[in-house]
Amino acid sequence: MLFAGLMGSPSYTTGGEYVGQFRKAAGNIQLLARNTTFIARPGSPEERAVRKSFSDSLLASAPIASAPHPERKSVLIEAMRCC
Known about the structure:
The protein contains two helices and three strands; from the N terminus they run αββαβ.
């Protein structure tokens, strides 16, 4: 049985490898596991179905604790509150 949020791979639930991405959303930094298991040819009806059925998975979220650095644009997060 497959559920869209599980991404269909045991490695996501057993600590396996994944492609990670950080995303800024509503005052938080989110760590996402990208869906690399289910893919289809870009622009095809199958690709739209895969994108709607198998989203990226949210692994963690932490609030932004500082304003962006003036030169690097990096931010500080409260990692202890993320888990």
